[in-house]
Amino acid sequence: MEQRIIDSIEKIVGKDGYSTKPADLYTYGFDASIFHKTPEIVIQPRSTEEVSEIMKIANREKIPVVARGAGTGLCGSAVPIKGGIVMAMQRMNKVKKVSVADLWVDIEPGINYNDLNEVLAKYGFFFPPAPGSAEACHIGGMVALNASGMKAVKYGATRDYVLGLTFVKADGEIVRAGTRTVKDASGYQLARLMCGSEGTLGIITEITLKLTTKPKKSAYCLCAFNNIHDAGSCIAALIAKPMIPASCEMMDSISIKAVNKARGNPLPACEALCIFEADGETDEVVSRDLKIIEEIAKSTGAISVTPSYDQKQIDAWTDARKSILAALSALMPGYTSVSLADDMGVPISKVPAAVKAFQDIAAKYDVTIATYGHAGDGNLHTKMLVQPSNADMWERGVKATDEIFDVCIDLGGTVTGEHGVGIAKAPKYMRERASELSSIIAIKKAMDPNNILNPGKLEQWEGSILANLRYPCKEYM
Amino acid sequence: MEQRIIDSIEKIVGKDGYSTKPADLYTYGFDASIFHKTPEIVIQPRSTEEVSEIMKIANREKIPVVARGAGTGLCGSAVPIKGGIVMAMQRMNKVKKVSVADLWVDIEPGINYNDLNEVLAKYGFFFPPAPGSAEACHIGGMVALNASGMKAVKYGATRDYVLGLTFVKADGEIVRAGTRTVKDASGYQLARLMCGSEGTLGIITEITLKLTTKPKKSAYCLCAFNNIHDAGSCIAALIAKPMIPASCEMMDSISIKAVNKARGNPLPACEALCIFEADGETDEVVSRDLKIIEEIAKSTGAISVTPSYDQKQIDAWTDARKSILAALSALMPGYTSVSLADDMGVPISKVPAAVKAFQDIAAKYDVTIATYGHAGDGNLHTKMLVQPSNADMWERGVKATDEIFDVCIDLGGTVTGEHGVGIAKAPKYMRERASELSSIIAIKKAMDPNNILNPGKLEQWEGSILANLRYPCKEYM
Description:
2 copies of one chain form a homodimer. The first copy, chain A, is built from 16 helices and 19 strands. By secondary structure, chain A is α+β, with helices and mostly antiparallel strands. In chain A, a hairpin with a 4-residue loop joins strand 5 and strand 6. At the A-B interface, strand 9, helix 7, helix 8, helix 10 and helix 16 of A face strand 9, helix 7, helix 8, helix 10 and helix 16 of B.
């Protein structure tokens, strides 16, 4: 990057507001995905006004700008594949106001999910989406990717809580979108449009979230099955009852083996399991729902059903579930667990068919694929075990990924359930949203005519998804 | 309209698919607002494909097109102020599929709200927004205006249930937006953008709504107060508890008088009242919440608190509340109740201040204003009593309306809580959303370059809102 541009950036954010040190640039070229690309500069703004001034320079000089939260994304949404500026938002991490009587909270994008919920809990509220990365992720990233997690089956995703937000457009204009009222009717819902746009329409600098009361009681039930098909059938039968659990996690045999090996057998040894959560205002409601879960699990072939109101037991199950990704990397020596087809959504009734198809595809391409996820809303994760330097294995993995995504689309599903599109899913996102592409392209051009905001992503994707691989695979470095 | 254009429209929808009869054109120039404008042709399409073919003609010939549901809108959103085509969607009124196990329903836009809920109730689900026009309104109109009603305080507005939809762009392109999965993460949420765009971005021809389980138990509590300020304080205290009621209706003394006069005193004679609803899975939850409501009502000055589990009593209260609009027209001989500043949203804690301000504004301009609404989410309705042919009174009414809207914006609220923008609110919508205007204009141009979709509305508004008055006021005819 030319020195004159760096100088003008320094005038805005100060000496300690940016870095061009190789170590920093290298570090900020990662997120939690399999991709990496080194930017030219990392900027850590402190205010909406600083972001606005930087965007004016970037727009004038046509420099790519990629906003970055905690870097917990699994798809490469924050990887700066066109270089340029990484706008790292972690210094904008304040809770600006909790308006209890008006049911909203104003925050900066850099605040962590658990930290926000700690603040909200004092007032009896919570922000429910509960991503797997709750300990680390930033709300700004959650909004940019419309993230969600375990509790989305009952409580919805991030988009369902965004009342309004402030964003900076490509040209530096500061826009306050939406309202701070619980309800607002018509007009273009720009706040909802921004939610999920992955930094391609603007840089989010402030967010107003709707407050929701936290249910007072909760309990869990672990159900073991002889095969993943029965587990999927159990979930579909429960939803069709209808009984919407507060969360509903499914694990296949590979995930179970990996966790039991890495963590000292916190889970029963079985071919498949579901961990259900029931919540509500009273013990009566929770126990009634837990009984419904037990009955349906037994009627759909559960070999063991273990309800629990004991927080220690519940924490052990939850920790086990959350440890899958890391545990898989320790399952087979020389193999690492990678996010390729990591996050699909299918119609709930299609979960058994989808999981069966994933297994067939894994066999066809001779790759090891673990399947788990928030199956209560049809959201399935797969993780592939690959030898990082083995190009042939990567290529088989990409072929398997293609087929997994195609299966999900053909089942009426989506390639992106909660982790976003980023790089890994961009080609299939364009297939899934083919009917929307002309509108998407028109809106992007209208909002970012110089195409500087996270360019090359979403509908702009071209080439092979292995082009920016972070692993030491010489064919793709 | 030129005969050659009418002929080409007839080729698409057939002889019985359109009308240019003066009586039909006159009729379809109304909605439930104070506005009227006669279109050139009324078309009643039967399919997405017919809408697409008509849009190709309209786009080529640059003819304005206004989509119309049941015409229950109170702001003029469906009034064709630039003439042209009214696209009346009532023939597209099928429930296409209820997918219970996958938690969605596919419908055409012309189905009525109550009819849809009758279908969903069979499966234990419901579509909660509950507009006041539930008996008559169409879901398509609810989506176009992001409508809601009594239950929005707990269950949200229409936008919170739209998983996907099919719409026809200005150029006739058919777009399927969103998904049929409960969750989908990133990408531009076109379905959410369409929701609330009031027919300015496309014609909605199919809608996929998320299914929600219907709570099994419900009860009500009517609380009477000596003044509207105490009623507002009661609501704010309840929300801050936090305790989110299933619905929360407030009525001022004029509304109460009007209803009691017109309907034989179904309500206690008092200066202000609130009708709260508590719902849940068990009687225990409902009675616990009802007790909280009673305590807080008494502590905030309620002069009487009447809980009820009796459906007949509850229906009487609900009918009374729903009859306000009609009852007000019967309150003062020679006066009719009109929707000018009919639907605002303010922060919940600001409800008392807002109502006080409305009363001062009514006194200042010597007009009679009734205030009521779903105050639990800060949504307030005012109705003005005017002599329809009295130009001076209309002008004072418009001045009062301006000030009411300004008060709500200045309190951090919105001019459109649930009824949409249409004509009545367009000038103040432009003030409220000033920061969003450049983006709104850019998106509208990108999606509708010839500006044929409901032109002259939202950000395009110019002139006096009295220009298209439906009443026999010669100064404005």
